[in-house]
Design goal:
By secondary structure, this protein is of the alpha/beta class. The chain is built from 27 helices and 19 strands. The chain folds into 4 domains: about 170 residues, Thiamin diphosphate (ThDP)-binding fold, Pyr/PP domains (Rossmann fold, 3-Layer(aba) Sandwich); about 60 residues, no CATH class; about 200 residues, Rossmann fold, CATH 3.40.50; about 140 residues, 3-Layer(aba) Sandwich (Rossmann fold). The protein is elongated and about 100 Å long. The site of thiamine diphosphate has 12 residues, from loops.
Length: about 650
């Protein structure tokens, strides 16, 4: 609830973006039909408040205002407060409260008193009246007003019963009128008053949310509607009014099938080998810039999105290169300011979309940008970048986006307790596990810049196609010595390493007769290598496996057991039975993420990782506190090897 309501907003941005970037998407209204209780959801207001939304005249929300949610009649729905909130956010507000019958009655003597009485009565009282027999209704409805009572007395029972439930949301002509007055220069919300369960024996009852009709009630309803219970999907006969209306509407709504543009060809390897020191976060910006040179066609379809963290996540170089998206050109008042490093050039062809600080909006937009391939035939390659701990709050709407067919890449950075000196509030722990568990998503936590390049290119290559998938990359701000990656110089060996990195893991260190294996992921691979050297020095030869994707390894394991469909070769190459030893796993995240690796060959395993957050200090101190420093890995190696 709430998330779906906002989808047409982000769909409108995605459509405008696709039209400006690659053409073919066109323009058109984006409708959302939502329940009034959905307006309790934060997602709705996060979306309404984003400045980009005020300009979206194609957006129309229709609020089904029945004053009921799941459990109750909401006592004080305060429609006027809601109307004011939309209006102050720049929306056009239309209210369709009463149907024509009541509107006509209101013009008769006693009508204004009747209207004032209905307007003023509490929601539960109104709902109660819906369930009163006519005699009781005549008694309760006037509420002490003699003119209203006289008007009511002049109505027969059927008209009175019809009048009390004659709300605008059930009156097609009243709705038509509202639709006709939509102003296309700003978003519109239509508050359509309705009765929950209109026309059913359960109508208006506070507990009718999932009430089912009895067989007798169904038969009588079918009789009233001229339908046949035994043939519930019967069409209107072609010659009848209903049949003609359906045919004409189908014709009016028919659209030609969209021509599908294929997803762009994506390189797998730029062929360079990073040297010096780099973080995986910085590597992200580098890969995007490299893509503009190596594969401009593909780079043109990349769109990055950030909830106000693009500069603090190293996207500055990319933004300077491609510009910021806005519906119309805007003046960059700092273009001539010599101290400005990040140039904020806003134009319709910009490839970075900046939103306010609202991660729900970020993933809402990401999901919609990820559906343009199926909706408008134009694949985009959306990449959302956010601080990793906020993946948790973004997860549900992102997951729904994937469920609804959106294919996108989410990048969480900075991540883990590796952010040690900056304080504890932005440290993430459970996200590696989330990446493993999320359906429709391949997750990666690369240790080196080259792994970021390979895994990101592989993730981009999976977007925008019928059998595609989303990806989640967890990146770090830790500067790491890139020579540790020991990228093979031989082209075939390099390609083998790349394939393994993309499939989930590779050997970083192989010894002659390993007595223990350290499987490490992400930022702590540096400590794992140092620990392996020390273990070997004390007579416990240790292999190091660099894990890039626990999720892919887990799937491979399930497949090998006959419980999933997936390639299993990565287990043969990186976890061969002949080299099975006791295992130490380590990551800057919850240790259980890699615990399953010990089950591949049922070896003894010790799992190191982070189970708390909040400690600040030097990287060394914080790693020691959590037991993921080199000493802790050495100790675990000795324990695992049983020495
Ligand atoms: C996030 C979330 N919380 C709770 C629910 C359970 N739920 C389903 S429908 C509903 C009430 C919906 O009320 P409203 O939006 O007014 O729609 P109505 O059925 O009254 O037309 C609730 C609480 C849900 N689906 N999603």
């Amino acid at each position: 609830m709430g998330i779906g309501a906002t989808a047409p907003i982000w769909g409108a941005v995605a459509r405008r973006y696709a039209e400006a970037a690659v053409g073919g998407a066109g323009t058109g209204r984006q409708y959302s039909l939502l329940g009034d209780a959905e307006l309790d959801e934060g997602a709705v207001w996060e979306a309404i408040l984003d400045p980009v939304v005020t300009e979206l005249g194609e957006v129309v929300w229709v609020v089904d205002l029945n004053r009921q949610s799941l459990d109750r009649v909401v006592p004080n729905i305060a429609a006027s407060r809601l109307e004011g909130m939309f209006a102050s956010a720049g929306w056009q507000v239309l209210t369709v409260k009463y149907g024509r019958l009541l509107e006509r009655l209101f013009t008769r003597p006693g009508g204004s008193e009747l209207r004032a009485r209905i307007d003023a009565m509490p929601n539960p009282e109104y709902q109660r009246l819906l369930r009163c027999p006519p005699a009781e209704l005549r008694e309760r409805l006037p509420g002490g007003s003699a003119p209203a009572a006289a008007l009511i007395a002049s109505l027969d029972d059927t008209t009175l019963a019809e009048a009390i439930r004659n709300l605008g949301g059930h009156d097609l002509a009243a709705l038509d009128q509202a639709y006709a007055s939509i102003d296309d220069t700003r978003p519109t919300v239509i508050f359509a008053y309705t009765i929950k369960g209109f026309g059913l024996p359960t109508q208006g009852h506070p507990q009718n949310h999932s009430a089912l009709l009895t067989v007798e009630q169904m038969s009588s309803l079918a009789g009233q509607l001229g339908a046949d219970l035994a043939d519930p999907w019967r069409r209107f006969a072609p010659g009848t009014g209903g049949g003609q209306l359906c045919a004409a509407t189908a014709e009016r709504l028919r659209r030609p099938a969209v021509a599908a543009h294929p997803a762009p060809a994506m390189p797998a390897d730029f062929g360079r080998t990073p040297t010096g020191t780099a973080s995986t976060q910085a590597a992200l910006g580098r890969v995007l810039l490299d893509l503009t040179r190596e594969a401009p066609e593909a780079a043109r379809r990349v769109v990055t999105v950030s909830p106000d963290v693009s500069s603090s996540t190293n996207l500055g170089g990319w933004i300077n290169k491609v510009g910021v998206w806005s519906a119309a050109d805007r003046v960059d008042w700092f273009a001539d300011d010599k101290d400005t490093v990040l140039h904020w050039r806003e134009k319709p062809t910009g490839q970075h979309i900046e939103l306010g600080i609202a991660e729900t909006n970020l993933v809402g937009l990401l999901g919609e940008l990820g559906t343009t391939w199926s909706r408008w035939g134009q694949p985009l390659l959306p990449i959302g970048v956010l601080y990793d701990p906020f993946v948790e709050r973004a997860l549900e709407p992102w997951s729904f986006g994937i469920y609804a067919g959106g294919q996108s890449i989410l990048v969480g950075t900075p991540s883990g307790v590796t952010l040690a000196p900056e304080g504890g509030a932005h440290q993430s722990i459970t996200t590696p596990s989330i990446g493993l568990e999320q359906p429709g998503c391949v997750s990666y936590e690369p240790a080196f810049a080259i792994d970021v390049e390979w895994t990101l290119l592989a993730a981009l290559a999976r977007l925008g196609k019928p059998d595609g998938s989303s990806a989640y990359l967890r990146l770090s701000t830790r500067p790491v010595d890139q020579t540790l990656a020991a990228v093979p110089a031989d082209p075939a060996a390099r390609e083998r390493r790349r394939r393994q990195a993309v499939a989930g893991a590779y050997y970083l260190r192989r010894t002659d007769r390993p007595q223990v294996t350290i499987a490490a992921m992400g930022a702590v691979v540096t400590e794992a290598v140092a620990a392996a050297e020390r273990l070997s020095a004390v007579g416990i030869p240790a292999d190091v496996i660099c894990v890039t994707s626990p999720g892919l390894l887990f799937k491979a394991l399930l497949a090998r057991q006959g419980r999933a469909e997936a390639p299993t070769w990565i287990l043969d190459q990186v976890f061969p039975a002949a080299r099975a030893t006791p295992l130490v796993t380590v990551l800057d995240g919850h240790p259980h993420t890699l615990a399953f690796l010990a089950t591949i060959h049922r070896v003894p395993g010790i799992t190191l990782g982070v189970t708390r957050f909040g400690q600040s200090g030097s990287l060394e101190d914080v790693y020691r506190f959590h037991g993921i420093d080199t000493d802790s890995i050495v100790r675990a190696g000795l324990d695992a090897a049983g020495s």
